[in-house]
Amino acid sequence: MEETIDVDGEKITGMAIPKGITVITGGGFHGKSTLLNALEMGVYNHIPNDGRTLCITDEDAVKVRAEDGRYVDAVDISPFINNLPHRKDTQSFSTENASGSTSQATNIIEAIGCGAKCLLIDEDTSASNFMIRDQQVQQLISTAKEPITAYIERIQELSAKGVSTILVIGGIGDYFGVADHVLMLDEYEVREVTQRAREIAGPREYQQAGVFSMDLKPFNWSLAAKHFGDRSKMSVRGRDELSVNRDAIDLRALEQLVEAEQAMMAGKLIGLQSKKALFGQGSLAEMAERVKEQLKNADFSDLFGIHGGLSYVRKYEWVAILKRWNVSVPTPPKGGKRHGRRY
């Protein structure tokens, strides 16, 4: 749909993506992921007239993806994952080596738990068994034996709860049937093809029983405090890794984290909360909101006692970094090992 807005005193007319479920499709290399990347970066303010000011995204839009191997601590992923082998608890799911499906479920729950109003998802970086189960698989493997509730079975429920989805799809046509809008990229030009997509797919309705919990459990700050001594060291390796002493936190899956200074800001915030409880107590969602308000009003040099080297970080990336840090394991001595693995 077309909208006209005011940008730096100038009227700009262009494409607007409304709330709800939007599928972006098209052939390979026609611009689907490029458009999604523009939407990811549109959550930040940009210098006037640098071009990026022409793509504006709700600040509560979060890119989520599969993240094989990520650390997960006590997250309720039961809306998507249940009945795991060996009776593994999914209402308080923990692992040091998440699969593609459990990690994507975790990333969605954490984003929504912090207040995300729009999820940005690319089929290419998603777990295929998390996104959908086709008819042939359903015929061979009964629903009772499948622990994964595919995202397509929850997407309309999420939309009804006020959480939109913008989804890049190249090979899963079933999503046409649940989409409010379907956009097709053709040589980097956008075409509205909703009606044709609905004719091809037909309407699809998914009904899910039960409570959809999206609460984030409190973080164990007392354990985190043990990692921050008077001589604790913090460093970043580009935007890919934050280290607290010798604890390395992998940030590569946080695609809306754009520079190392944001990672350092997140580390400083975690350190302040661990040592001084600067942002109070309570749930992670409540604390994340207080951090957001504090950063809006604070002078960074007053807050951290340093000048330069820090950039504003959203609450979503701040919590995502915190939740990827395994504070339950003490930092090993230099040259030591953790869980029998070389560190």
From TrEMBL:
Gene3D superfamilies noted in UniProt: P-loop containing nucleotide triphosphate hydrolases
Residues in ATPase of the ABC class C-terminal domain copies: 9-207
Keywords: Plasmid
Residues annotated as domain MRB1590-like C-terminal: 233-325
InterPro entries named among the record's database cross-references: ABC_ATPase_C, ABC_ATPase_put, MRB1590-like_C, P-loop_NTPase
Protein name from the UniProt record: ATPase
Native species: Persicobacter psychrovividus
